[in-house]
Amino acid sequence: MKVHESDARAIFRRHGLPVPESRLASTPDEATQAASAFGCPVVIKAQVLAGGRGKAGGVKLASSPEEAGAAATRILALTISGEPVRRVLVAPAVDIARELYLGVVIDRTAQSLALMASAEGGVDIEEVAATNPSAILRVQVDPLAGLPDWEARHLGFALGLSGSQVRQFVRVAQGLVEAFVDVDASLAEVNPLVVDEAGDLQAIDAKLNIDDNALGRQREIEQLRDPHEESDSERRARAAGLSYIKLDGTIGCMVNGAGLAMATMDVIKHYGGEPANFLDVGGGAGVEKITTAFEIILEDPNVRAVLVNIFAGITRADDVAAGVIAARARLTQDIPLVVRVAGTREAEALQLLEEAGIGAERSMDSAAALVVEATR
Amino acid sequence: MSILLDASTRLVVQGMTGSQGSFHTRLMREAGTQVVAGVTPGRGGATVDGLEDVPVFNTVAEATRATGANAACIFVPAAFAADAILEDAAAGLNVIVCLTEGIPVLDMLRVMPRVRASGANLIGPNCPGVTTPGDGVKVGVMPWSVHSPGHVGVVSRSGTLTYEVVQHLTDLGAGQTTTVGIGGDPIIGTRFVDVLAMFEADPATHGVVLLGEIGGDDEERAATYIRERMTKPVTSFIAGKTAPPERRMGHAGAIVSGSTGSAAAKEAALRAAGVLIGETPEHAARLLVQRLP
Question: A212 and B252: CB-CB below 8 Å?
Answer without folding.
Answer: yes
